[in-house]
Amino acid sequence: MALSMRFNVKSVFRCVYKSNSHGRLFKAGKATGTTSLPKAQVFSGIQPTGVPHLGNYLGALESWVALQDKYSTVMYSIVDLHSITQPQDPQMLRENILDMAASLLACGIDPTRSILFQQSQVSEHAELSWILGCLTSMPRLRHLPQWKMKSKQKNEGSVGLYTYPVLQAADILLYKSTHVPVGEDQIQHLELAQDLARIFNNQYGEFFPEPRALLSDTRKVKSLRDPSSKMSKSDPQKLATVFLTDTPDDIVLKIRRAVTDFTSEVTYEPESRPGVSNLVSMHAAVSGQSVEEVVRLAEGMDTGQYKNVVAEAIVQKLQPIRLEIQRLRADRGYLESLLAKGAEKACSLAAPVMTEVRKLVGFY
């Protein structure tokens, strides 16, 4: 089924800032009537690559939910412009966008406390990306790790893949974001956004704040089949990754087949016992306990018995999320409407910023 065109037609446009109600700014999903952005503003994005896995949830999404209570303005974007730097099936991309929207909502992203929107529906992202790209040198982009890794895998890369860190910077700066939740592997890309804010400010006058990183302290979730690698959606081994939509039976099977070692005692030693330590780390994260508490509770168990405990803890954590994703995914119209409203809110923030950027650059 194709994505409803009423959603696309209404939302894909340049946001024209006016002084009427459509042009008001939003704070935690509500209009404030002011023309200046809040001092603390959080932005982050996630690619629509299907339903998230346990590593995505514990490493990012859980902290995204908590940020809604800490900051006055929180924005989360489904960054579909970034996704097409790799070949995409259009129909699958449409479905993945809605799957991601449903997953974020099920995990606790609340559209009354944050702004959830689809990146491509706010054209200012692409416009600001072009302006910032004209301030970026090619050597600066060549040194970013993502380009080195992905272009090497494909032996060559597209212009979009090469310049997508500039689009990332535009995503952040477009809303004058002050804080960005990122993983350690994204720090260099955030540094590019900071550099571009300084370059723009030096050339055109003080305008963009330099965004700061919000690093999650959640341990990285490793592959269940290869604990030396991160858990990944693209892992060819089906038993390596726990998805948020996995059934309890799926989860039990994957945890039982998780790679450990020949020592039966449960300990947390990431260097020498990465497999068992990965299970301990996941157990601690989903149960809200410390690693020390989890290990103490596992005293007297062998790893086989402990796997059953870990599986049960993960099932209890993910079962409500799985059921909510199913419920939301069955209501396509609601998801489309919610993303359209989110795009309108994002537009009302982006429009005045781009109006000033155009004036500063000299477009009018």
From TrEMBL:
Keywords: Aminoacyl-tRNA synthetase, ATP-binding, Ligase, Nucleotide-binding, Protein biosynthesis
Keyword check for Transferase: no
Gene3D superfamilies according to UniProt: HUPs (3.40.50.620), Tyrosyl-Transfer RNA Synthetase (1.10.240.10)
Catalytic activity entry: tRNA(Trp) + L-tryptophan + ATP = L-tryptophyl-tRNA(Trp) + AMP + diphosphate + H(+)
Localisation: Mitochondrion matrix
Alphabetical list of NCBIfam families matching this protein: trpS
HAMAP family referenced in this protein's UniProt entry, alphabetically: Trp_tRNA_synth_B
Free-text function comment from the UniProt entry: Catalyzes the attachment of tryptophan to tRNA(Trp) in a two-step reaction: tryptophan is first activated by ATP to form Trp-AMP and then transferred to the acceptor end of tRNA(Trp).
Protein name: Tryptophan--tRNA ligase, mitochondrial
Gene name in the database record: LOC109044878
